[in-house]
Amino acid sequence: MARGWRKRDYNRQGFGQQVRGYRLALRWSLGQLAQQSGLNKGTLQHLEKGETHIPPAKRQIIIDVLTQALQQAGQPVNREAFLQRAGLEVDAILRPSSPSQEQSATDALAGDQEPELRHMPHEAVAELLNRQHRWQLAGTFWLLAAREARQSGDRAKWSRCTIRAGLMALTGSQFEIAEQRFKEVIEQAQAGVPAPAAVEAHIRLGWLYYEQDRFSEATHMLRTAGRLLQNLARKENTDSESLCFSAHGSILPYEGHELIVALEATRAHWLGRTYVDWGMQQDNQEMIQAGLAKLQKNRQYDGQLGHYPNVGFALLRQIPALLYQGEVKTSERYLAQSEELLDRQGPAQGHLALHKGMFALEEQPEKAMDILENAREGFTEPIFYAHGLSETFKEISSLYLMDDRKSEDVRALEYALAAAVLHPYSRNIELLQLAARRMYWRIGENRSAFNNFWQTLEERLWRMDAEPFSDLRYLMKAFPENDISYVETALEKARNAVQDELSGKG
Q1: Alpha carbon 190 to chain centroid distance?
Q2: Strand 250-255 vs strand 242-247: parallel, antiparallel, or unpaired?
Q3: Terminal CA-CA length for the chain
Q4: Helix/strand/coil percent split, the chain, to 5
Q5: Best CA proximity match to 295, nearest among 279, 249, 281
Q6: Under a CB-based contact definition with an 8 Å cutoff, are residues 307 and 247 in contact?
Q7: Which residues on adjacent β-strands are paired with residue 250?
Q8: With the C-alpha atoms ordered 188, 192, 193, 199, is the resulting torsion angle positive or negative?
Q9: Which end of the chain is less crowded, N or C, counting CB atoms within 10 A of the terminal residue's CB?
């Protein structure tokens, strides 16, 4: 299924999605694009779905038509990236003397070119920064675009940009900010916010609650999104609805029936993950099976849309539940399939290595550490992803706990503490309490000795000069405005959880 474009000379799915995105940005119908490009409307329809191969000359025509129209309309367009996605030789096509409008948008962010940002719309800058995974800064520009839209009364743009600002905060583990953004959109659902945006806001809020291990609230929010989506699907004018929808970091345009499918695909993904993790927490096989079924549905929807990286993630996210159920062969097969499908953009390489590490913990523990170290690197350089790193530290801590030596218990507690500081929610806190209880036993259940040990541990954490605490310096770089307070708050929560555990209050 995903191999089709690889047999050709360009990424058909990626190019088709880019064409559709630019067409919708211009508010053109397929008929208008056909008229402007001279290509058959049916061919264009198949092209946007990634279902057909067209020769380089016709790809060039489409690029020329769309980029020229976008530039005339003052819309952002990255011509160089568009050409590369089409499999065309950029150097042979771009002219050094071309106007600055055609300069790579990525170059505009580098060094002495950064002043060029002053001439770009806020939303265009935000999209650019998001593609570079500069999430915190992208969120600022999306929020600026939302404020601008509110002043002009553009409710569709306001809701779209507010959700994007929330997504940037969510990706950066700034959960309180993200929750505020999504709730803003939900609260305005009766005041002109487009119905698809209200559905997406509920889905994103469900994702946020899932990340915080608030499984009951996540389930409620995602089911509410399902009911709203059913109402949207029944509307007579559904075909007129459109949305630039974020899926695993990509901004993808959808309209009509495909919009319904895209929203349901993402809803199924997060509901499936919620059921799986909640089921494993409660050892509820029925709930785990329901979660796996939702993830399979998500896989089918994304396959229908031709967005194969999402199919890869849907496969990857089933592996923890399959390993929990002893389905080793299926897990191994899904790992191989997801590796083929994932596009390795952003932290995807880290996610893949993390799940390989989970598999190795079950089958070949002696190889797990090297694999998990690869995951750690995938979540720190060149892009820092706090939650992924915390998941990796959690697995490394579990690996150390499998040993029966005091030195390994010390390492287990160090990694559990680092995981809890990065992501201070129930599963990481529970692992920290387990590791602390074991260390407490190691030193003869002497409370005074343990307190001294813990104080030394906190001192080492703040020095951040040795693994795993040295990786917390990436957190300092990622959140320059609230980095220290983030660590202080998480550390206090971790400290209190450990004290409660040792006092028998856990």
Answers
A1: 29
A2: antiparallel
A3: 49
A4: 75, 0, 25
A5: 279
A6: yes
A7: 247
A8: positive
A9: N
- Can you list the alpha helix ranges (DSSP code H) found in 283-403? 285-305, 308-316, 319-324, 328-341, 348-363, 365-378, 386-401
Burial of 240 (0-12, 13-18, 19+ CB in 10 A): exposed
Q: Under DSSP, is residue 489 helix (H, G, I), strand (E, B) or coil?
A: helix
pLDDT digits (tens, 9 = 90+) for 155-169: 989 999 999 999 999
pLDDT tens per residue across span 283-293:
999 999 999 99
Which position has the higher pLDDT, 343 or 127?
Answer: 127
The token pair at 130 is 């998001």
Average pLDDT of span 252-259 = 71
* Largest interatomic CA distance in the chain: 81
- Report the pLDDT value the prediction gives residue 241, as an integer from 0 to 100: 56
Query: Residue 247: beta bridge partners?
Result: 250
Do residues 185 and 201 lie in contact, with contact meaning Cβ atoms separated by under 8 Å?
yes
d(CA 267, CA 229): 10
CB 83 within 8 A of CB 90: yes
pLDDT of the residue at 471: 93
Q: Which amino acid is at 476?
A: M
Write the DSSP symbol of residue 185: H
**Phi/psi at 191 (5° precision):** -115, 35
Single-letter residue type at 11: N
Q: Which amino acid is at 167?
A: L
**pTM, full prediction:** 0.77
